[in-house]
Amino acid sequence: MNSRAVHGCFLRVLLAVTLTCAPPAAFPAPQSRDEALAGLEHAQAEQRAEAVVWIANHGSMADQPLLLKRLRDENGSVRGYAEQALWQLWGRSGEAEIDRLMVAGIEQMQEERYAQAIATFSEVIRRKPDYAEGWNKRATVRYLAGDFQRSLEDCDQVMQRNPYHFGALSGYGQIYFQLEEYDAALAYWRRALEVNPNLTGVARSIEALERLLRQKRVRL
Hints:
Order of helices and strands: HHHHHHHHHHHH
Radius of gyration: 18 Å
Mean pLDDT: 89
CATH topology of the largest domain: Serine Threonine Protein Phosphatase 5, Tetratricopeptide repeat
Number of domains: 2
Distance between the termini: 20 Å
Shape: flat
Strand content: under 5%
CATH architecture of the largest domain: Alpha Horseshoe
Number of strands: 0
Low-confidence stretches: 1-20
Oligomer: single chain
Structural class: mainly alpha
CATH class of the largest domain: Mainly Alpha
CATH superfamily of the largest domain: Tetratricopeptide repeat domain
């Protein structure tokens, strides 16, 4: 494990933007919420996937528990749709101007204009303080700017609003890894996997860090 790998993992997890789930074509999509709710428990994986997509495109944060359950679906495609769907729900602010600011902030972050991105996400937070994803994106850019303490503080705010945000949980782990507080890093990465067992990058980070700690103990 090295800092470049950790940096890349953090971006993959926390820089995720709103995704539009494209429904599988094998079965007709649900036409109502009732059909979607029934489809989530259907024996056919394709039907469950269609239902997850419907929730992603039409649901709200109140539907988060439904999608969290599908992160443990027996079918890998359904699990993948569920993860994308959760990011879509988290990214939906419900206000067009907030969404516009989020897009602008993400572009600034990707262009490494960190001070501007922090200012943009701070404005999102000022306007909509209960919107967890505003805090999450500011945590990301503060991490990238090297401001680890303030990034942790923003992650705390995400957790207050959405304790199931596996992106922020993984982010804690990345920050504590950089701070060489390895026990804390492992604890948060494990919490992220408890919520979303499909985070293969996080699982690899845990294995690599555990191996590193074993090697250090042997040298001692």
